[in-house]
């Protein structure tokens, strides 16, 4: 029987695994800098909105490795869950299938007799009961390694599939334009059509923060119009007007907004990569002092969080959020996993004034 590990050995093993996770994440992001891979990862992230952006990339990269090694039958992940979660759904992890290591939150209980005072909270030991009149709250204090498996690594009861309507070429998903337009107006912006790109100075859409207006070309197909509207709404939701005085680089703002638009479209089964790929690649290369990889790494989680906020106010997406249908994860578990595991350092780009009018170009020349 193996000797039981000491507390110090457990801590060192955990730190080693987290170091390995960081290395995998760096490698995954590095591989995703190429146009096609980045677009595929963003579409995947849209489907896995219940996961943090870091965990999304880790799952994506490890599944790609498993596919190349012949351990899974599909090149892209579909549904992922923990070992016990799959058992709850009547499925078993196949023998010999290695799980994908991700970050999981570590929580602790804190107690206070004066919750309004941040200094009054004290951490409770394991099994310790609060004192009379104390308020108890749980708080995330760190992360630890955990493992999940893709559905292709399991067998058992069939998974109920969501119905997925097939979109006609050129058409936008039903209700998506109306939902996005309502959010634009709720934020105090007037929405209007423009006859063509000439009126908008060559752009597909324009957000004017001074005039509090959004214009979208009327001479595009519905699918292109709804993607453009999502892009303009993202500029508003991301607070690009407020971040301009802080030196927000135009390239960073455009990568953020277009990544949000791609995620929203992907959530409704609308593929916008033909436009988005060169757009993101071009703007990420315009940030002086930062590589495209650094720009993408710094904007990924912000874009994902913003897409989540917009999607919360839209009709139910047709694609799902990455959890197997039928799996009931508590809202607290989802929130902790989504918000606590991503630690992306903000990059300091050279200050560059962002125009009052935020335009989505009709074409990107020379990229």
Automatic annotation (TrEMBL):
Residues 41-111 form the N-terminal domain. Residues 119-133, 330-341 have a biased composition (Basic and acidic residues). It comes from the Bacteria. Residues 114-133, 313-346 are annotated as: Disordered. It holds the Pfam family ArdcN. GO terms for molecular function: single-stranded DNA binding. InterPro entries: ArdC_N (IPR013610). This is N-terminal domain-containing protein. The lineage of its organism: Bacteria, Bacillati, Actinomycetota, Actinomycetes, Micrococcales.
